[in-house]
Design a protein that fits this description.
125 residues; mainly alpha; F1FO ATP Synthase; 6 helices
């Protein structure tokens, strides 16, 4: 069982985790996941629009063309936010713009990604 008996060792572990490139990569992945959650709202809205369009066409079949056209325009407009969120998520996941900025500003951060063995050595002294 590993116990942290030295406060300086614990702060050293915490500072190496926070300043590491692994932390930045993890936050990029988290941001990409949150951005992909943005697709839920427009999906729910488009389903609601489609249901209301079907109800309207059932009430007035002769206005079906106008209702369908208006529904499609509304769907396209609401889908743009989802497309932007998807593009942002893919940029974060594959181009990793923030980690490349960190490594260009702090070259030592590229070699500072902690490993499990390194963390165990820091904790046990």
């Amino acid at each position: 069982m590993l116990l942290l008996t030295d406060v300086s060792a614990a702060s050293e572990v915490a500072s190496s985790l926070v300043s590491s490139l692994g932390f930045v990569l993890g936050m990029e992945a988290l941001g990409a996941g949150i951005a992909l959650l943005a697709g839920m709202g427009p999906g729910i809205g488009e389903g609601y629009i489609g249901g209301k369009a079907v109800e309207a066409i059932a009430r007035q079949p002769e206005a079906g063309g106008v209702i369908t056209r208006t529904m499609i325009i509304g769907d396209v407009i609401s889908e743009t936010g989802t497309v932007y969120a998807f593009v942002f998520a893919m940029l974060c996941m594959f181009l990793q713009p923030f980690s490349s900025t960190i490594t260009s500003l702090m070259p030592e951060a590229a070699n500072n990604t902690p490993t499990l063995a390194g963390l165990i050595d820091l904790i046990t002294g």
